[in-house]
Design goal:
This protein is an alpha/beta fold. The protein is 34% helix and 25% strand. It contains 14 helices and 22 strands. It is globular, with a radius of gyration of 23 Å. The termini are far apart. It binds guanosine-5'-diphosphate (GDP) and magnesium ion (MG). Magnesium ion (MG) binds next to helix 1.
Length: 460
């Protein structure tokens, strides 16, 4: 494949953190300004992502450039904004994560919260570099705001008390990060980016610190991930979500990181019951935000070049598993080899199960979250064996399978740990009859807590 060191692709950025820390608001702030201010424009909302082109970044960081000049070498930033906690669990891609860099958002008034720590552990597990946004600085008592200012300009205008309160809260955050095995430092005081995480104070309400955040994301990616970011022709594409859309049928939302997709291409995907081979019928993206009289919700494309968030319309997508890779058949490719490739991805995850056949059942909404859950259950601090896994809602069949543990005289393992999936009514009924315990949660370690308490109960 041809590679050019000056032809970089867009880094993929994901935002994660505890609920209500301001993840959505931070993105809103970046977008809204640009809807009003058309000159700065070009920011587009894509399927599952927001594209911030280099021009918009240049504009947003203008004031910062005076003191911190820098060249933007990336074509822009592609920020993943799939709603809710789903997003990061989905963002799995073979070998490394789909995300090149993460933003871990922390509410400065609350410090590190349970989901912050869960996100931190996921980032560590996937070896994804990240920066910390210490958000809501405008809530420090008697904060004087300077809309969209670089954060050091803002700090320079604050009184002694604000500075003291900030320092206290920052020190506390540093301490909690250290307790979780991470060194952190204000990004402009960072003694060594290889051993200290950068912290950027921000406000999603006033926009302060956002220029700093955009600049640091560009710097870290273009300077430290140059090799990884060189554009290649070979298609690299990850499924974010599988969705029913009226008029279009079952569609998949994907992030195209490298290469070109065209209508009519043959693609291979991971399905619940094995590989899915299908043909792209349509490639669509949302209407640009400034389009006033919108005839249809989507714009159709004959072909699309990376990096983009795209909705794909094709037959037979119903069983596709979110969080997996999509492969494109090129003239040199043998279809069976592509199918093997897809099977390997599924096997990778399956191989994490306990070989003894004794353990709990685990169920999740996506392959990515299933993988994260298995990784967590296997870790030395947890060590819960797993005998059965499944993706999607908990059905009667899953309950049957879990009930087998009673025959093994292991009643505590007649348990289904269900992460972010519904339980059908019939399944719950059967579980009650067969004495199978179903535990559900939307945060991984809540499942662990429930299960540990339950084990203790049984053993007493
Ligand atoms: P998410 O759950 O992380 O996506 O959080 P949201 O973006 O929905 O924000 C949660 C709440 O915090 C909303 O009421 C926001 O208006 C508020 N919020 C978010 N960022 C800031 C901020 O920087 N300053 C202040 N004062 N409030 C904020
Ligand atoms: Mg949100």
């Amino acid at each position: 494949t041809r590679r050019d060191k000056d032809d970089l692709r867009c880094p993929v950025v994901c935002i994660l953190g505890h609920v209500d820390t301001g993840k959505t608001k931070l993105l809103d702030k970046i977008r809204r300004t640009n809807v009003q201010d058309r000159e700065a424009g070009g920011i587009t909302q894509q399927i599952g992502a927001t594209y911030i082109p280099a021009d918009a970044i240049r504009d947003r960081t203008k004031r910062l450039q005076d003191t911190e000049p820098f060249d933007i070498k990336v074509p822009g930033l592609l920020v993943i904004d799939t709603p809710g906690h789903e997003s990061f669990n989905n963002l799995r891609s073979r070998g490394s994560g789909l995300c090149d860099i993460g933003i871990l958002v922390v509410d400065i008034m609350h410090g590190l919260e349970p989901q912050t720590i869960e996100s931190l552990n996921l980032l560590k597990m996937r070896k994804t570099p990240f920066v910390v946004a210490l958000n809501k600085v405008d809530r420090l008592y008697s904060w004087k705001e300077d809309p969209e200012a670089p954060i050091r300009d803002s700090f320079a205008q604050q009184n002694k008390d604000v500075k003291r309160e900030f320092k206290e809260r920052m020190d506390k955050a540093n301490l909690t990060f250290a307790e979780n095995g991470m060194n952190t430092a204000l990004y402009y005081e960072n003694p060594d980016v290889r051993s200290y995480l950068n912290v950027v104070p921000t406000s999603a309400h006033t926009g302060e610190g956002i220029p700093d955040m955009l600049q640091i994301l560009c710097k870290l990616t273009q300077e430290r991930m140059h090799e990884k970011l060189m554009y290649v022709d070979e298609v690299q594409c990850t499924v974010l979500e599988v969705k029913m859309v009226e008029g279009l049928g079952t569609t998949i939302d994907v992030i195209l990181i490298n290469g070109v997709l065209r209508e009519g291409m043959t693609v291979v995907l991971t399905g619940l019951n094995g590989p899915v081979v299908t043909t792209i019928r349509a490639l669509v993206t949302p209407q640009p935000m400034r389009e006033l009289r919108v005839k249809s919700a989507y714009v159709h494309h004959k072909e699309i070049r990376a990096a983009q968030g795209i909705k794909i319309v094709a037959p037979n997508l119903e069983t596709v598993i979110a969080g997996t890779q999509m492969y494109v058949q090129t003239p040199e490719d043998d279809l069976d080899e592509l199918k093997d490739e897809v099977n390997t991805e599924m096997q990778d995850v399956l191989s994490r199960m306990d070989k003894s056949g004794e353990g709990v059942s685990v169920q999740a909404s996506t392959l990515g979250s299933l993988e994260a859950l298995l990784e967590f259950l296997k870790s030395p601090a947890v060590k819960i064996p797993v005998s059965h896994i499944s993706i999607g809602p908990v059905n009667k069949r899953d309950v049957m399978s879990a009930s087998v543990m009673h025959e093994h005289k292991l009643p505590e393992y007649a348990t289904i740990l269900a992460f972010d999936v519904p339980v059908t009514q019939e399944a719950q009924q059967m579980a009650d009859e067969l004495n199978v315990k179903i535990m559900t949660a939307e945060i991984i370690y809540h499942l662990f807590d429930q299960f540990t308490a339950y084990m203790q109960n049984i053993r007493e």
